[in-house]
Write a structure and sequence with these properties.
Layout (H helix, E strand, L loop, with lengths): L3 E2 L6 E2 L2 H8 L2 H44 L1 H4 L47 E2 L27 E3 L7 E5 L45 H8 L6 H12 L6 H12 L14 H17 L16 E7 L8 E8 L2 H8 L14 E4 L8 E3 L7 H13 L6 E11 L2 E2 L7 E2 L1 E6 L4 H4 L8 E5 L6 H10 L5 H19 L2 H9 L1 E5 L3 E13 L2 H8 L16 H6 L6 H15 L8 H7 L10 H6 L14 H24 L3 H11 L23 H9 L1 H5 L11 H13 L1 H6 L6 H19 L3 H6 L20 H4 L4 H8 L2 H4 L2 H13 L8 H21 L12 E2 L4 E2 L8 E3 L6 E3 H7 L9 H13 L13 H4 L2 E3 L3 E5 L2 E6 L5 E6 L6 E5 L13 E16 L10 E13 L14 E4 L7 E4 L4 E4 L2 E3 L5 E2 L18 E2 L2 E3 L5 H6 L11 H4 L8 H12 L5 H8 L32 H6 L7 H12 L13 H8 L6
Parallel strand pairs: 10-16
Antiparallel strand pairs: 1-2, 3-4, 4-5, 5-8, 6-7, 7-14, 8-9, 10-13, 11-12, 13-14, 15-16, 17-18, 19-23, 20-22, 21-26, 22-26, 23-24, 25-26, 25-30, 26-27, 27-28, 27-29, 28-34, 31-34, 32-33
Helix pairs in contact: 5-6, 5-31, 7-31, 16-17, 19-21, 25-40
Length: 1237
Amino acid sequence: MAELKCPGCPKKFQNNRSYANHKRSRKCKAKIKAVAALRLDLRTQNIQSKQKRRLETAEEELAQEQEQHMQIELDHDEPPVIIQPTPLVRPSGRPYRRIRKPIRYRDEPPPEPMALNPIADILSEPVQPPDVLTPHIANLEACPPPIPAQQFRTLPDNYGMYRVYAHGRPLFTPDESYTLSDVSDSPNLAVNNSSSSRQWFSPWGSSLENLEESIKTSCAPFPNISIFRLISWYYNASIMKSHGELNKLVCDVILADDFDRDHFIGFNAAKESKRMDDYLEAQSCVTNQSSSSPFSAKDGWIEASVFISVPSEAPKFEVKGLYYRRPLEVIKAAFSEPGAEKFHTTPFKSYWKPSPEESEERIYFESYTADVFHNEFDKIHVQLPPGKPEPVIAAIMSYSDSTHLTNFGNASLWPIYLYIGNQSKYARAKPTSFAAHHLAYVPKLGDDIQEFYLKTFGKLATAAMLTHLRRELLQAVWLLLLDDEFIHAYIHGLEMELFKELMSLLFPRFITHSADYPEKIMMACLKYLANCPFRLFARDLCDRKRLMRIDNEHQQFDIETVRKWLFVDGKSLSSVSVDRVLGAKSLVPTRNAFSQRLFKHGFNFYQLFVPDLMHEFELGVWKAVFIHLLRLAYAHGGDTILEINARYRQVPTFGRDTIRKFTNNVSGLKKLAARDFEDLLQCAIPVFEGLFPRAGLPTIESFGGFFSSLLHGTASQNSYETKDLPCEETARVRRQAAQIKKATSMPSKKRALTKDPPNAKKKSTRRNFNLTTYKLHSLGGYVRSIRDHGTTDGTSSQTGELEHRRVKRFYPRVQKGKHVKGIAKQVQRERLLHTLNERNKVPLKNSKTPATSEADEVLPATSPDVHHHISEEVRHKVSLAQWLGKNEDDPALKDFLPRLKDHLLSRLLGHEYDGDETEFTPAQRATVIISNNNIYRHHVMRVNYTTYDLRREQDSINPRTHPDVKVLSGETEENNTDPHPYWYARVIEIFHARVLHVGPLSRSSQPQRVEFLFVRWFGRDLDHRAGWKAKHLHRVGFVAEDQNPFGFLDPLQVVRGIHLIPAYAHGRTSAALGPSKIARPFALTQEDWRCYYVAMFVDRDILMRFRGGGVGHKSTREATNFFKNDRDKLDVERRGLAHQTGEDSVATDNAAGESEEHDANEDAEMDGDEEDDALPEQQELEDSDEEDEEMADVEDDDEEEEEEEEEEEEDGIGGDDDGEERDGQMDEREALGYSAL
């Protein structure tokens, strides 16, 4: 054995034991440590010198690579290198990928409204005279000359938006309390509970000395705060308990800091409900209470009766059971609520000037930016005496429609809702904002009217007489609502102290009335299904404007003349004399309540009625077109119908609720809501492609041509023999059977006075597309309506249909038979609780937005000011060595690790462009160290974006359900002969890794969290003509395997998620990629669709990103300006003519304000089984409107239910839009999702 020498002394040892004992001695222990440290230092220096030489070599190579690959990026003086285009379609039909890098995308949140800065430009131009909307009114007093005033213009924000106030600087604007939460619509965004400037303790002063007593007062009439929270949860919760409702009970009630179980000793729910009723009744009796009190109940419900006249000088018939509230008191209560601080009391015109070189354009988005609001405000300013307070218009937007309360039975309600147009449409459309004020519940004409008629005249009332009496009833209710107090405020104003001690003069003004067609006809006192209901059969827009209806004395004289014939002379409603006087104008012998009360004050009630996107287009025009397409499919024969159903089933979903999963049998038309028909329209082009070779439906162009052929009858009459659908035929038979059953069940005396029951119709031999419908001809009125009243999502009846769910939710809680009174009480209680909650909103520990679990991954709410959000969890760890070894034969993972390090190194070096195209040397890749050689998988990535109308929204990217994204391409006309602003990719995996960058170019010595997406690229099909000018959807397909189809993407590059619909007519293929479990993790086959269509109509924001000109698309404006030149010739000529005539550009008007999704979507879920009121005149034109009549019964499977709905239809009350219950949050998002395009 060799001798062991001590490094601290000259001693030598023969064995290890003696040497170890020696080292532990005090004499040599210190010397041995010093020698060991010296040796370690020498070794460390040696290693560092070798590493330095290696890194210097890598730095030299990296500098050379950067000089070669980034010369164009660093040197801006050199012209760009023009890459010659290569064919994107291989011989197999698969597209190639254009190998370039996506450009940097910078997300920007919506701007803050500009403050009313006194240094803003003051325009000394006098105010122009207001447009008089009723020039033909003979007794309208001439307005004096306008008072010169100065216009106030705000400074433009960073998006180029500014406002112009016509009458100087306003005294109040709600933008003072603006936060980003006010424009954040996604439910997964972290928002503040309230951005109101009013503190929760403000009703009791700023002092907190009596805080305990204040809190006790704040929960009045309840004895303690715990009971108050429980009752609030009960009234705000759904009757169908869910996990979410249970979580709210635990978080908001049980876990509240002030919760005390002793508070519930002796608790009784009925007693607490009676306590609320007694409190409201006591408050209504207080006469000296301040008008600004949040608990005033002067606007409580009143039970009354109305009397309607019966022809032939008979005594008036009393209709009992009317419950109503005084409109003026409702308006005062609305302006006293906490949410009123967000009301815009002064109208303004909004303009957009994106750059100094471009001209400014006016933007329409709210009712208080539209012309009718401005005209009314100008009239008030002109006639207002000096010394009066600041005038404020209380814009009234009413809605009325009857609704069924149950799926079975005949319980129904006919409510009238009142909305305040000063409130933003985004808040007004949400049911949870309590923007709907229930004004009245109209009673029905029951069977007692027939008994009265039989007793008085000895015969039953005819169908025409019943229809007339229903019109009289509705107008009598409105005549009662428009009382003297309201008329006085309408003329002279109402002095009222608004928020922040602002004394104002409140003028109520009716702006719009929303309803479906039957209700609208009853309100307008026009004949149902007449030849010219709204004079919209004009040849062009000029005729539409010239022939608009005007309420005048001549029309009133004709109506009074006919009423004298009916009520004095005893003539019949169906007499030739009546039709000769009123038939030409489609009038009816009913006095309009608005005409009686407001005509002499210059009000034209016809201006109230606006086109309704939901009922008139989605459930009208498009539904009729879709049904006729199904008829064509049946006429075409074969398996066309089965193919349509199969294609719709395979359409992928998009967004939270934008495009939902279609039913298995779309052609059956069972239980389809308005949102379902909207989805069917958005996905129709790829579905119907190639199904009708004779009519031709492969593209947008041929789809539009086919629709034109429908309008002219060529496709239906010359190519196919279209007949009723099976469901239409079945519905007709069941309806006729119900009529026969009803007729035969009458008493013998009544049966003798009625006509014989109709015989069953024979099966129709032909069914053509019907052109003579009001809904089709009203399409020309949308543009003017947007300018006059604001965008259609603010005037759509969808908002009122969503409010129907509130009364339906209360019906199971009230006494049957007296449900109208019970619902009125429930609504009043809920309003009281809502006001208390808003006034007492105190931040609690448990009030934070809870984290949501998506795909077993906890992801908290996302801040709205960040671009994207990926979970911080590290549970789903992926070992690169094991994962790559297990899938070494998968083509998707070919060169995965080198390409990943190239991507990471490019980002760590801060290159201008990100992507996987730059290849580094092995030495350069060695500077990137992935911690523990592990990456971490995530299931969801949320991407925030600013919408075209300056709202904050969010997309959820999920590789399993919503994997497709788009990024900016960087293609321009200089570097590409056929540029396109976007590239598309499918996200296969979402990863993050802990990465350490070493070497002299490292910017940090600490490991960094780097997030990246593993994607499969799409390539554009250049052989396919696409775009607005070509009238084709853009078509893409997966990049071929030999063209680098896989890569990595920085999440910051993602602009938005995108909806790609397979091109079903082109089939599937496996030529692009061989078998791959990584690329197709959820596919049932190892084939891909040959190509996909880019669904640019999926929501309003994506549509504007493919059109250009979106106000909120500042980050992509330069790239999407390309679309401004991609216009059809007719569109260019029309826009040029509009500018020459001084009109605003309609396309630009829609750019910032119109809403089409939706998202908000939001969204309503109204049933498509809504049935228009079957007034008796409907029988005159039954063949012309059979679609609406027959499809009313198609949605219901139960025969008894359909018979009951037929009875409701015969009553002449609007049909029900009752649909299946959905999550309330989705409802609100859908409510924001409708548009005015």
